[in-house]
Amino acid sequence: MNGHRPPRRSAPTFSLSPPKLNGGNQKHGDDDDDNGGTIDQFPGGSPSIKAELEPRRRRMPVAEERPNCPVSRRLPCAPLKVIVVMFLVVVALCYLFSQSQTLKSPAPSGDTAVLGDIAELQLIHTGARLDPQLHWQGDPALGRSFLLGPQVDGLGQVHIQHKGIYRLHIQMTLLNCSSSWPEAVHPSPTLVLGICSPSARTISLLRLPFQNGCLVASQRLTPLLPGDVLCTNLTLPFQPSPNADATFFGLQWIHH
Fold first, then answer.
1. Pairing of the two strands 164-173 and 215-224
2. Is the predicted pLDDT of residue 24 greater than 50, yes or no?
3. What angle, rounded to 10 degrees, do the helices at 47-58 and 31-41 form?
4. 111 or 246, greater pLDDT
5. Distance between CA atoms of 168 and 221, rounded to whole angstroms?
6. What Å distances lie between residue 159 and 153, 195, 225, CA to CA?
7. 226-235 b/e (C-beta count within 10 Å ≥ 16 → b)
8. What's the whole-model pTM score?
């Protein structure tokens, strides 16, 4: 009250550095324990300081955080697997399709799409022969003859309808023949099977002489085209047997 002012009191100061502990020469390996004890023993320590220092204790060394070799980026596996599976499926389907085409024999279209062209013909016996050409017919009503694909015209000639490789077979027995008389006949009788039309494809396919007997038989494979006409000739004046067991002519389509 006499005008004397009281002395100002200085504000208390606090040090944030942890107090030194006894045994300051301890090894650095115990730093984590010391720091933990310092924080807990710090008078009036703030929780924010604890939260700031706690991650430093748990942080791994920088050298251990980074791997020695870079990690390569991996491509997504799902799309790659889908592509591989689709490729294998396509390959399998192509293989199965090729196998089915190989095993399945291709056949001409039309009524003969299943079996292919086939025919078994019988001889038309007309009595005395005036020309060497023989006349054939195919009709189930005759017994053993039939036609599936090829056509027979009024002269008994066989017309091919589809291109392909055919198996031809023929057998013929001479009428009123004995085993001895063909040797005494000159020239000896001969059976000829061939393409007689068109003229550009005329060729002999089978030539069978009756050398020492009354029967000849043979077969062969040959390519034929649509429009080919097959004819058979027998040397005059010999007569073929009209018996269907002794004389017949047939063909069968087997491949393109």
1. antiparallel
2. no
3. 170
4. 246
5. 6
6. 7, 10, 10
7. eebbbbbbbe
8. 0.55
